[in-house]
Write a structure and sequence with these properties.
alpha/beta; 6 helices; 6 strands
């Protein structure tokens, strides 16, 4: 009988540990929609050029701001959050976020001159942290999140190949690699697209919908570069903007 009692105590303790572990497990909280885009055209390693600055205003006025003229992406919903990773992405998304009275959630990576490898490693780590937060934050559950990102960490087959066994791009981390039709790489020549990612099944982190939406703008923004996917920049692309 003493042995039986010890067995019952051990079973009770084990159940208590399992209950505690279950209560400590992260609660899945999946947004209904993620609007993913690249930053605007850049002048240098830290700033947008005049075209990129104009694109940031056009994004606010046309698609992402409180008074946007085209509500197709937001579908009448107030964004839960605006996320950014670099100075370029913060500058791009700030006008839209400010129009809603929202801060930009920054996973800041700033060039420090320490070298390309270190910068890429920092971008990778920040992207991993951001993606985990997006798929676990109860405040964003069932809502729309806007992510303005560095294009190689959106999707880049070369970067993924260099880091086999690790998930390093949003294409992988948001489980877009399990969805048909998602490009393997975001081209360096494209600043003018959205990736619209839907999670209609709130119990799963695998997207149920994906659409590429081309940015098109009325006057006074109609001169912004709007080349097709994976095609060269227009011949009149300003020399003041980096290619």
């Amino acid at each position: 009988m003493p042995g039986f009692r010890r067995g019952r105590v051990g079973l009770a303790a084990g159940l208590a540990l399992l209950t505690t572990a279950a209560s400590m497990a992260p609660v899945q909280a999946v947004p209904k929609r993620i609007i993913l885009l690249r930053h605007g055209e850049k002048a240098n390693a830290t700033e947008l050029c005049s075209v990129g600055q104009e694109r940031a205003i056009a994004l606010r006025d046309t698609y992402l701001g409180r008074s946007a003229s085209n509500g197709s992406l937001l579908e009448g919903q107030t964004p839960a959050a605006f996320l950014a990773i670099t100075l370029h992405t913060q500058e791009t998304t700030a006008p839209s976020a400010t129009s809603w009275g929202l801060p930009v959630h920054s996973y800041a990576v700033v060039p420090t001159g320490a070298g390309k490898t270190q910068l890429m490693n920092e971008l990778t780590h920040a992207t991993q942290v951001a993606a985990a937060n997006v798929l676990e934050n109860p405040a964003w559950d069932g809502r729309t999140v806007v992510m303005t990102w560095e294009h190689k960490h959106i999707a880049n087959k070369g970067l993924e190949r260099q880091n086999r066994g690790e998930r390093v791009t949003l294409r992988q981390l948001l489980n877009l690699d399990q969805v048909a039709g998602v490009p393997a790489t975001w081209p360096g020549t494209n600043y003018d697209y959205f990736w619209v990612i839907d999670y209609d099944d709130q119990s799963s982190t695998v997207p149920t919908g994906f659409e590429m939406v081309k940015q098109t703008y009325p006057a006074p923004f109609s001169s912004l570069p709007h080349n097709a996917w994976n095609t060269p920049l227009p011949s009149n692309f300003p020399a003041s903007c980096q290619r």
